[in-house]
UniProtKB/TrEMBL annotation:
Keywords: Signal. It comes from the Bacteria. Residues 1-23 form the signal peptide. This is Tetratricopeptide repeat protein.
Length: 421
């Protein structure tokens, strides 16, 4: 009798498992096993066989996005080694009491390579190239009905290329957004067409910063302060590598460390090494704004309600944050205004001189770049070449911020803006 009942139950269970396996996207297999390189190859092969498979294309874009950080971390680990000690931190003290995944990351081997300035630029260039590849893939997703269900808490990424991937559920459980995040088995998100634009927008945002960093000449900054971050450094000042924990016995201060930090701040004045990259950075920011507009076009046409990452006003999202129509309308106004500023049609208010008489053309900062000095920008004189008379952005209008604060809450706007993209 028991056997007669058990057999159909087992068959039913196997059937359900096979249906789930068939429904699970190919990308999840590699994301949850931490085998991103294998996953990228498998998904590319799938697209070669079936170029119209936008689920595979979406999955490839996600895998490539995580690969960019895995490649960056793996390369960085070769140069950093146990350099936490440079700041007076004992690795064993830092590790004590931390969760096991983080303890494993901190228990690194000594640096295997000597860092050069050319190495750091190549690391950054590789990261930008990886992000561009992910953005290109995500931008090619066209099917408005595409779905990519992923158990995001089970995604594994080898952050430092040491063969010890960390599961996303560890990070999610400490984000404190909702209790649901702590349960990786149930934290399933059905990413859709709008989410492809969302991630592509973030790729562009990160690429823009990467291009700015590659545009500047940081050779002297590297020569004088790279030993703060890398264990072995090719520098014309080898004596910088010979001091460890030289604490003044009277005042208890690590004098070399303090002087190095002051030098790091002092050297924040950068000549442009490749000024054309500033235009590339602007293009990425414009693409980010375009993706941000596109994603909401798709979100607002959705009629389902299936484990949404970012819901429209008629949906319930997995983060259980209510999105109202007023929030969407206000955010779209913010995006339009940002586009006007990036296009140079509206100016950023200048913070010196008589108020309201002139503003900074942000577009020209990128298209007509000069030496970058954050302190002179703060003072105002670095903005002088870009001052114009014209329409000032509504971001300077108290009514705009009153609407933003009323809609999102005074202390929530920038948090939600990060989520909204």
């Amino acid at each position: 009798m028991r056997r007669s009942i058990l057999i159909p139950v087992c068959l039913g269970t196997l059937l359900l498992m096979s249906q789930f396996a068939a429904a699970a996207p190919l990308a999840e297999k590699y994301l949850t096993s931490g085998k991103l390189d294998e996953g990228a190859q498998a998904l590319q092969k799938q697209l070669q066989a079936n170029p119209e498979d936008d689920e595979a294309r979406f999955g490839l874009g996600v895998v490539q996005f995580f690969q960019s950080f895995e490649h960056l971390g793996g390369t960085l680990a070769q140069y950093v080694g146990g350099n936490l000690n440079r700041f007076g931190l004992r690795t064993e003290d830092v590790r004590r009491g931390l969760p096991e995944p983080i303890q494993e990351i901190l228990s690194q081997a000594p640096a295997s390579k000597t860092a050069t300035y050319a190495d750091t630029r190549q690391m950054l260039q590789t990261w930008v190239d990886d992000l561009k590849a992910a953005e290109k893939t995500l931008s090619a997703v066209k099917d408005p009905n595409v779905k990519l269900p992923l158990h995001v808490g089970l995604i594994k990424v080898d952050l430092l290329g040491i063969g010890k991937p960390v599961e996303a559920r560890f990070l999610l459980s400490r984000a404190g957004v909702s209790q649901q995040q702590a349960d990786a088995e149930q934290f399933l998100i059905d990413f859709d067409r709008g989410d492809a634009d969302w991630l592509a927008g973030y790729c562009n945002f990160l690429c823009a910063w990467g291009e700015v960093l590659l545009a500047i000449d940081g050779q002297e900054l590297f020569n004088c302060t790279a030993h703060l971050f890398f264990e072995k450094v090719d520098t014309p000042y080898p004596f910088l590598l010979e001091e460890h924990g030289n604490v003044d016995s009277i005042v208890g201060v690590d004098r070399p460390l303090v002087s190095d930090i002051l030098a790091f701040i002092h050297l924040w004045r950068f000549e442009l090494k490749e000024p054309e990259r500033m235009k590339a950075a602007l293009a990425h920011l414009e693409d980010m704004q375009r993706h941000a507009k596109s994603m909401w076009k798709f979100y607002l046409t959705e009629t389902d309600n299936e484990r949404e990452w970012i819901p429209n006003p008629q949906q319930t999202g997995v983060l259980e944050i209510k999105v109202t129509q007023e929030m969407v309308d206000t955010w779209l106004v913010v995006l339009d205004e940002a586009g006007e500023v990036l296009q140079g049609k509206k100016l950023i208010p200048f913070w010196r001189g008589k108020p309201g008489t002139q503003g900074v053309n942000l577009r020209r900062v990128f298209t007509e770049p000069r030496e970058i000095d954050p302190f002179l920008w703060f003072q105002g004189t670095a903005a002088a070449p870009y001052l114009e008379k014209g329409e000032i952005t509504d971001f300077a209008n108290p009514e705009m911020w009153a609407r933003i604060n009323r809609t999102f809450g005074r202390n929530r706007f920038f948090t939600l803006a990060f989520w909204f993209n």
